[in-house]
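Researcher: Hi, I'm a grad student and pretty new to this. My advisor asked me to get structures for two proteins we've been looking at. I'm not sure of the right format, so I'll just paste the first sequence and hope you can take it from there.
Model: That works fine. Here's the first sequence with its structure tokens right after it:
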Amino acid sequence: MAEPEKKQGSYSAKDIQVLEGLEPVRKRPGMYIGSTGPDGLHHLVWEIVNNSIDEAMAGHANYVKVELLKKNGVRITDNGRGIPVDIHPKTKKSALETALCTLHAGGKFAEGSYKVSGGLHGVGVSVVNALSTDMKAEVWRDGGAYVQEYKRGAPQYNVKKTGKADNTGTRITFYADPEIFAKIEYDLKKILDYLRNQAYLTKGVRIDVIDEREELANYYSFYFEGGLLSFLTHLMGSRVPLQANPFYARKEVEGIDVEAAFMYTNDVEAEELSFANNIYTPDGGTHLTGLRSALTRTLNDYARREEYLKESEENLTGDDMREGLVAAVSVKIREPQFEGQTKARLGNTEARSAVESAVSEALKEFLERYSTDARKIIEKNLLAAKARKAAKAAKETVLRKGAFEGLTLPGKLADCSSRRAEESEIFIVEGDSAGGSAKQGRDRRTQAILPLRGKILNVEKARMDKMLMNKEIRALVVALGTAISEQFDITKLRYHKIVIMTDADVDGAHIRTLLLTLFYRHFPKVVEGGFLYIAQPPLYRAQKGKEVRYVFNDAGLQKLYKEYGKDGVNVQRYKGLGEMNPEQLWETTLNPANRVLKQVKVEDAVQTDKMFDILMGEAVEPRKNFIQANAAAVKNLDV
């Protein structure tokens, strides 16, 4: 074997880097807060807020104030016990300095300090300190007021007493470091949504929010006595409930506090939210699994006992139970096992059995007490099962025609010659006219064109069986190659860029919304994987003399007029892609060197879900209210 080529440079003990104190956080911030983008920035706020909420859950606080300051500062105050300030026996420094300047130091590890806590890792406040240019900690406890300040995690002086205090609590003020975060801009809506959830999940705590970034400060306040039941009402929003009485259960099982609530609606989609120690777990976990298991088993037992299901009939499935379900489950557990610092999924096996036990027992009583609601729920489940069987037959028909089984692709699809998904693109275009121009103007090696005739079915209102009877949707499913529903396989996706390309008018916007609904509801991994895009064809073609410019919006047109003046400028407004010849379509919308594509991302799944429900759901009133509220902001409306 040949010897490897020797390169210059040493590799000895002195090359092994040892990071001390908070240095690892600044070196690899993503390991501690997930990212250095907007999510990571807001995670700083959550870490401090969660400490205050922990005090409230432990019964030591009932008030939290969050202030968004000028110059990108954040100040969070609570009326809890206050972080201890006496000398720590191990570090020989103040407990306050130890907590704020040492990783894995905090009251969450000590037996008896907190029964439950959202701050699992004990790194929260110290990580915020490390990633801030400036931080100030103020503490009121034991009759005294104390303070310490820090710069990028380094204390500027020892903890000092500034006076007397007849109250208790903690105030943390911090300024995120621009060396770590490329853009420091706090999203008020994101913060309000998070804090509203915290108020719902912590009965009796008041949370005030003050946004001081504008000349006139804005004030918000949250306080709910109903706990998860109040939260369920919020989740339901404008949806019409199927049952007259909401299900609610709260019980402690083997030291785990379980709270669950649900309502069924006439919708097809389900919405399930789960929390552990008031931390939202977007990827669910054992507590959500326990809720689903309890629903499936208890409702099946009831359906058999009341003879909704015959002996010869198979059990209802979990998917049958979830159709139209709006549910929330919250557990408070002593030692939560989250996956990752951002706590996306709960892993405690004991949480599943605790939730399953608590919900099963309460649901049996609920079904006996409210027989009318029980009948409506079971009939809803049975209808979902019937639709599932019909959809299975429809899916099998579509899959048998799928390209992945060696049969032909849809006849209307002009496929690309490349078989490498990572370089292949498919443009979903509106109508045969635009499809014709796109087919002629494309790069045939890497770009496929699938024209749609008219508007596809609104899948928000339709079950799978009806959806797969739609020719346009069937063609799209086969073209993508991933199959759908439980057979979906993202590894079989034939194109790594799926581009929605519709006209710049009301009909085009409607078709685009229908397609977005289809992808969000039935191809979520395509969206999550970053494979879905929206094309931005130009709105205007401007020509002065021999020079031609394409303009994408009204602001761009005004800028062009300022540059050229209006005299002698011939402006054509495109209403449809079919008005462009193949060369123009290639130059403006298909050519990777010139085109503008917007990648579709979901930053707030709960809000996105609600928006699809408002815009595309059965209920008319919330859609009417949305249109009235946003009518003034509409641009480019065809009349």
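Researcher: Oh nice, that was easy. Here's the second one.
Model: And its structure:
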Amino acid sequence: MCGIVGHFAFDLANAKKVDLLAGVRAMNHRGPDDRGTLDETHRGIRAQLGHVRLSIIDLSPLGHQPMTSGNGNVTIVYNGEIYNHVELRRELEALGVQFRSHSDTEVIIASYEQWGPSCVSRFRGMFAFVLWDRAQRRIVLARDPFGVKPLYYTRNGSTLSFASEVRSLLALGVTSRRLSKEGLASHLAFGAPQEPHTAIQGVFALPAGTVMTVSRDQAETTSYFTLPRESRDIREREANETLGNLLDDAIRLRLVADVEVGVFLSGGIDSSAVLARTVALGANPRSFTVSFDEKQFDEWNYASAVAKHFGCPHERILLKPQAMLADIGNAFDSLDQPSGDGINTYFVSRAVRAAGLKVALSGIGGDEVFAGYQNFRRMQWLERLPSLPAANAFGLRAGGHVERVLGLMGSGNAKARYRHLRSMFSPSECRALAPQTQEPLLSTFLPSSDALSTFSRLELDGYLRNTLLRDTDVMSMAHSLEVREPLLDTRLVEYVLTLPSNLKLSPKVNKPLLVAATGTLPKAATDRQKMGFSFPLEAWLKTDLRDWATDLVRDEARAEKAGLDPQQFATTWDRFLAGKLTFARMWTLLTWQAWCTKHALSF
């Protein structure tokens, strides 16, 4: 796990010199074990590449980056893990390839030299890399199928710049410090800027599952991964057996490391399933749980019961509001883009890294893949409801906004319904809070034949990628911690999305597919109400964090610079304090304002 940054100039006469080391220093936290740079001019192209390294596989200097092929034709900077690199290495060796190291980085180079840019379709893992192909005089950028690892870029005339984090591009000086209208609009609508846009004007995210090739005269983006759209008719026993094998394979690959691997454990089904199968594969990992004095948010009893059931060492991370308040500035400084969800991962990652771990397995993706959210059931209800009165009869809530309910009922389009189910603020509220923004568009989407699979694909492309994965990456890497995601293994996800809805929902247990495929989970994991990974921030905002939040709200000048209407912002805060507004919506505004203030950004 690492951080990458770079700059290419195709027109040397007019190229602006960038401070590559500034871009590298901006992400030192991502790789404290090593750093490297390359700055060269070759056949009229200037290439500047930077890398910081968190050593996980092949801890020797042979894993140093930027890494160049033996023939000198290709140089790579790479962030992530190719979990099947051992199998690929054997295949390449059979073709006559000789390796100098045991790193997966060298496997990527050899794969590219053997199969070209299409080599990415062979990789199982989380990755973002940039190849400088001297022979072809082109740059190749690639990102993993689900966008677990970030890759941002900006183009300005004859230059291309890229980085693992937006703030590294800001440090390079290749983009303005101006906020993006699209970023603000999508943040208000969904709680985080939605790809391909970012919070910064002119900076974009390379789409997940794509390869971009850039030369002097053109740039071409090609998708190499699409999820299946058709469901299959299959018996439950066969599905459970196949899924169990896929789950074990996904975890086995993610246990490969030259350092200790731990587990994030909430005590819910997803993380408990990961721990259960990890133990079944012969490992005995340390597990970690965030705990609070506020019992309604505390999962310690559940998690400790699960850890005890599987005989694993378990550590409690007790977090108090005073500790969070003391470090909240650093947390927002680590948040590479504004988000209403990322603060949680910052604190748990800090504690796990302090315990001496570099790698932890997570149950992230389980809700999206295995239909764990209540919204999956709501989507099914909406498919059957012909009218607004019927919706009210089912007790659906829309935050008191008739506009949102009408939007839910007024369209048979799954994407439109997803938008309304996931939205933080309605279009009219967004216009009031930020008058200069326009309603954001969701990405292009083709529905599946199965309603639940359709919603899973929307969640994978929406909330998971733009909030959960982005926050997990940047907040874990703020503490030089690598988080791995077995429930997002491509083969596992592809299989689950082809299974029919009747196997995914049950009135007796949440995520019945995952529970059955895992084997015997303790009742502490299965016989409980879903809590989700959340902090008692609502209560803290009205007590320990109130002064911090009030200072943000009352700074009208900063609110205007951040694109928010100061009066509407203040009114929203008053409504929250009066109990008339949900915490999530208020936190969405506060995180945008805090992030813009911290990084001195404005429209």
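Researcher: Is there anything I should tell my advisor about the second?
Model: You could mention this: Residues 387-411 have pLDDT under 50 and may be disordered.
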